[in-house]
Amino acid sequence: MMEKVRRDFCIECRKETEYILQKKDIVKNIKDKNYTFEITVAVCVECGEEMSIPGLIDKNIQEIDEQYRKMEGIVSIDDIEKLMKIYKIGKAPLSLALGFGEVTIPRYLEGQIPSKEYSDVVKAALASPAYMKGKLAENREKLTDAAYKKAVAAAVSIEKLFSVSDKMLGGIAYIFERLEEVTPLTMQKLLYFMQGIYSALYGRPIFAEDCRAWIHGPVYPEVYDLFRDFKYNPIDDARFALLEGTEDALTDDERRVMDLVVNTFGIYSGKVLEKITHNEAPWVEARKGYGDGIPSSEIVPKERMMKYYMAVNRKYGIDTEAGLQAYIHDMLDKASQPRTAGPNP
Fold first, then answer.
1. Within a 13 Å sphere around the CA of 173, how many CA atoms are in the beta-carbon half?
2. N or C terminus of the chain with fewer C-beta within 10 Å?
3. What is the pLDDT of residues 131-154, one digit of tens each?
4. How far apart are the first and last CA of the chain?
5. How far is the C-alpha of 69 from the C-alpha of 67, rounded, in Å?
6. CA distance 151 to 236
7. Could you give the number of structural domains in the chain?
8. What is the distance between the alpha carbons of residues 214 and 292, in angstroms, rounded to a whole number?
9. Which of 108, 132, 161 finishes a domain?
10. By three-state DSSP, how is residue 26 classified?
11. How far is Cα 204 from Cα 199, in angstroms, rounded to an integer?
12. Three-state SS at 190
């Protein structure tokens, strides 16, 4: 499909001409501080001068606003709207619940930029249901019973939903950051591989949670419950704002292992990854005595995972992408043959 030709009136050429959209850096002084912003400009194809076209000023205002907020660490309008959705609370009640004036949040939604102090309060509420519960309790008398009870119930529900460890939340956030679209099945397998490979390379697990040997491979039940509650694409759900920043809790070594996993196992579908885990000793051993269609809640011991991947590391060198790719290749070959608990490094 051909791109639509853009045309408008050029005041330099004194006629309607074709134009192209380009990016341009401008410097603006805000509160005695200079900022460089990248904005969109329309450039006449014939004379090369900038043109004023409908809607461009509004777009530039939006671009500057978004970049300024990011530079200064100020919450966006989208962040505030997510907070309202997460806690099922209106703009005026949210303002009171956070300890602001009643019209503060409505003004922010209209485009007024929050102070750093107030922005940090909104950020804290967005990141922590426990913090939000504290603010609701602190400002209880300012809210109606209905608004208070609805918001507290939402906070309690979210606390239960996000009851996994900080490292696990960080791992989930990191996977989403790198892959963007991830099915629950793929997520489970990637977390499992991260746990096993990290423990083999560094002698300890990343995640405190225990993995269980379910029919479709290793599963972290807490993560399963987390995804089950999301009725739409998880990444589009307002509650996933609670994951933002959780990857900051990860160490460089943990990120390195996660990159190894995402760059290798992450290129396959969840069903392909399931085939690999179905031929690995940790899952096979935990499933002994259970038929293919029989559910199991057996734990896949962290120690067994570590020993298995230590043996795999000695054979393949899984501290490199090349080593992991060789391992994956061999495991997929085995998956096409009668099931074994291979390989036997």
1. 22
2. N
3. 999 999 999 999 999 999 999 998
4. 53
5. 5
6. 21
7. 3
8. 10
9. 161
10. strand
11. 4
12. helix
